[in-house]
Amino acid sequence: MIEGLAAIYIFMLAGFTGYEIISKVPVILHTPLMSGSNFVHGIVLVGAMVALGIAETGTEQIIGFIAVLLGAGNAVGGYVVTERMLEMFKPSDKQSKGEGS
Length: 101
Known about the structure:
Elements: H1 2-23, H2 30-53, H3 58-88, H4 93-100
Helix pairs in contact: 2-3
């Protein structure tokens, strides 16, 4: 019982701390932070694949497979979002054509 309460307390404290830290990050730093989080998502994906590889029972294999799917989706989604954010900083074709005339 005590271990469960401690785990919930740590989870809530980590969530609150993460929210407070991220809310104070300037907008210009969001893209580098997203790239860093993509790196962490890749590590999570590798961990999920290792867990799936050592799974013995059917339940463990199902949970491992779901973990791999969710980890892969999270990593790919992070790279898609990063790409979209980087596109916002590129000059548009209308501006570059208008300046040359």
